[in-house]
Amino acid sequence: MEHSGRRPDTAHLLRLARHLTDRDHRVLSLLRTHRVLTTPQIAQVAFTSHSRAVQRLRVLTGLGLVARFRPRRDRGSAPWHYVIDTIGAHVLAANDGTDVERSRVRQDRQLAVARSTHLEHRVGANGFFTALIAAARTGGRAELGEWLNATDTAERVDAHCGEWGIGLPHPDGYGHWAEGDRSVEFFLEWDTGTETHRQLTRKMERYADFTGAAVRAVPWVLFVFPTPRRETNARGALRRVEGVGRVPVATAHLSGAQDPNTAVWSPLSPSRGLDRVALIELVSVEVIV
DNA sequence: ATTTCGTGTCCAGTCCTGAC
DNA sequence: GTCAGGACTGGACACGAAAT
């Protein structure tokens, strides 16, 4: 993990404030909320060129606003992974007028992110949302109106549920995607191919219970798989879950440079095969209740 | 040893913005 | 209008690791 090693003091923060752009603040805010993002992901959401993103992130690292690490990879070299550093957290806290002490970024927590066995999962799920933001930036009338991390999504799940006593699902994120006057809400389930079918069906059972207890319309549940084969097998397992018909579920396998807003989604409704629709088209797909 | 893949680094030139 | 400083762009190159 590369840190600047600096401790924040008022004079240093004042000097920094003069040099930071609105975009720098946005990057820091994203890192605070979503914990870890790679260079390409940050470039997608905040920069117009990859090399400019690389240059600016090096500057922010040197200033102690962000810290970075590179996980080991089997093939080639991994991109730099960025997390917010202590000074970056102080800058945001000063900006928000929040308690500086509460913003303290503990290095052991940063290391925990870097060493987490869930790192690939977290980065993958974040990449899903940054790809949507990138698509919106180039796509005219499209917009990712909201992007919640797993923790904040849990609160959103609670908000949809009128009764207690059921096992609530734990999505990897929540999003609100809009194109023109149409919009779709969704929970994301990012699959890295490591879970058993039993674990997947248990998840699906929770969504079925949740849909039954919900006091208002439930967002789409989007399962993303790493390969077509994994998706086909998982769909078979998910279909066997009791009550799945009332849950708005769609699946996709995303590989390479496929954008998640395009026609990659296959609703799980029993009557449908594997015909793919764009994310925004899910609003017109009927769900059997 | 060489190639391939996926990434970061460096640098020269250009653009933008604010001060004078 | 000129100047300076910072931001941006695109291309060339380097690096680490696996595959050939």
Automatic annotation (TrEMBL):
InterPro entries assigned: Replic_Relax (IPR025855), WH-like_DNA-bd_sf (IPR036388), WH_DNA-bd_sf (IPR036390)
Gene3D superfamilies assigned: Winged helix-like DNA-binding domain superfamily/Winged helix DNA-binding domain
SUPFAM superfamilies the UniProt entry points to: Winged helix' DNA-binding domain
One Pfam family of this chain: Replic_Relax
Protein name listed in UniProt: Putative transcriptional regulator
Source species of the chain: Nocardiopsis metallicus
